[in-house]
């Protein structure tokens, strides 16, 4: 037994590993298709983007081995330290970070850049798992909810100051984790209602939305009064507060939209909601992406046969819009295959998380699944114009060492936790 425990590969779930390898391999093929030219066909041309990505993929091997080397108790014991290191790395950007495309999100080491926000997600997941796995911790207590919110939104706030709003949105995924561990659904419900009110206010204006919202609340009040035969049992202060909150939120939407959102964010929302036409070609990337995907049809045009991909029609196609390359070259079959791979990966993670004997492993597993789910939904939704352009990578697919290493670390910490669950707790 001791020899088995000393083997870093003992007990690991090979299904997760195979799914990871398939996604990374398919991702690299897509990056190769988007960046290759007639002059640099050789695969090991390290001056190209696909060549650099191949190096980063190769470096994932020692990263995986290093991650699996430590006992799973190590990650639980030092979760807080990892979290504070990630906070320090985010703070350091304001002194030593490099500004790229208006965001100070990178450390520049000359030969490579490093984006600490990609690793902060893994360390935040560890910190949340550490906090919630405490036997004395009860999420139903407001003070404990506040502790969890601070851990989640502290890194999110620092990332927002860079600014990198796409990465900030991912931290909302931790509400699924909190809900699994006992947090009321009211938070998710309130958040969903707020988003609906925000978008409908942009479309129809505050007066119409306020009247509609007040009408719905009034119908609910009348239904309650009729069912309970009287008003004495009804909590009128809460009802009046609800009316006030709804009115304030709706009428503050315009101020928030015009003064807090950046102009490019407003442009993207206006185009997505049909408020304005894209006369400035702000949605050019998305339009080209949709055309590339639709041109692929059912079975695609074939590897390296996509004329829109080969012709570089889609800007940033090897990063945020990598899914469009899959759609053009592999068609509906290819895109369905990629989505199925992600679904299988998420299902396997949740299944394994539920089999954990220890809360720490289960909670971390749900954190991993939630983060991956948010990334996949937002990225693909953006590429097919169901969501506004936000700019977050597709896990294991998009070009970039920080993104690939961050997701690899995030996944293989869980692989190690799962491998040790039978004897480590």
Q: Could you walk me through the main structural features you see in this protein, from its secondary elements to its overall organization?
A:
The chain is mainly α and 425 residues long. The protein is 68% helix and 3% strand. It has 18 helices and 3 strands. The chain has a 3-stranded antiparallel beta sheet, covered by helices on one side. A hairpin with a 2-residue loop joins β1 and β2. It starts with a helix and ends in a 6-residue tail after the last helix. The model has no long low-confidence stretch (mean pLDDT 85).
Number of helices: 18
Tally of strands: 3
Query: Helix and strand string, N-terminal first?
Result: HHHHHEEEHHHHHHHHHHHHH
Indicate the low-confidence ranges by residue numbers.
none
From the alpha carbons, calculate the radius of gyration and give it in angstroms. 24 Å
Task: Let me know the largest β-sheet.
Answer: 3 strands, antiparallel
| Largest beta sheet: strand ordering | 1-2-3
Could you say which structural class the secondary elements and strand pairing correspond to? mainly alpha
Shape: globular
Give the mean pLDDT. Answer: 85
The helix fraction, in percent, is 55-70%
Distance between the termini: 15 Å
Fraction of residues in β-strands: under 5%
């Amino acid at each position: 037994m001791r020899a088995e425990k000393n083997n870093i590969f003992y007990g690991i779930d090979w299904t997760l590993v195979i799914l990871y390898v398939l996604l990374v391999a398919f991702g690299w093929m897509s990056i190769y298709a988007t960046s290759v030219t007639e002059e640099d066909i050789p695969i090991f041309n390290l001056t190209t983007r696909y060549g650099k990505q191949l190096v980063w993929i190769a470096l994932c091997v020692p990263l995986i081995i290093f991650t699996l080397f430590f006992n799973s108790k190590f990650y639980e014991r030092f979760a807080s330290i990892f979290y504070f290191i990630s906070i320090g790395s985010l703070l350091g950007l304001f002194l030593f970070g490099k500004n790229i495309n208006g965001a100070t999100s990178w450390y520049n080491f000359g030969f490579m850049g490093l984006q600490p926000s990609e690793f902060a997600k893994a360390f935040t997941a560890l910190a949340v798992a550490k906090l919630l796995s405490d036997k004395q911790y009860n999420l139903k207590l407001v003070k404990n909810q506040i502790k969890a919110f601070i851990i989640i939104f502290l890194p999110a706030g620092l990332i927002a100051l860079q600014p990198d709003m796409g990465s900030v949105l991912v931290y909302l995924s931790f509400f699924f984790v909190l809900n699994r561990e006992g947090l009321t659904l009211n938070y998710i419900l309130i958040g969903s209602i707020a988003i609906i009110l925000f978008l409908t206010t942009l479309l129809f204006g505050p007066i119409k939305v306020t009247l509609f919202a007040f009408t719905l609340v009034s119908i609910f009040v009348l239904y309650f009064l009729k069912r309970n035969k009287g008003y004495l049992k009804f909590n009128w202060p809460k009802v009046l507060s609800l009316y006030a909150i709804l009115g304030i939120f709706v009428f503050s939407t315009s101020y928030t939209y015009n003064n807090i959102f950046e102009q490019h964010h407003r442009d993207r929302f206006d185009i997505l909601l049909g408020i304005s036409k894209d006369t400035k070609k702000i949605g050019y990337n998305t339009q080209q992406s949709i055309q590339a995907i639709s041109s692929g049809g059912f079975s695609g045009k074939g590897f390296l046969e996509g004329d829109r991909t080969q012709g570089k029609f889609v800007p940033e196609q090897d990063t945020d819009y990598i899914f469009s390359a899959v759609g053009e070259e592999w068609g509906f079959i290819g895109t369905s295959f990629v989505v199925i791979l992600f679904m299988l990966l998420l299902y396997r993670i949740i299944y394994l998380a539920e089999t954990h004997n220890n809360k720490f492993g289960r909670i971390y597993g749900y954190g991993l699944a939630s983060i991956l789910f948010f990334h996949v939904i937002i990225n693909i939704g953006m590429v097919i114009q169901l969501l506004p352009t936000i700019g977050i990578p597709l896990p294991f697919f998009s070009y970039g060492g920080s993104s690939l290493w961050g997701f690899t670390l995030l996944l293989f910490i869980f692989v190690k936790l799962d491998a040790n669950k039978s004897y480590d707790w």
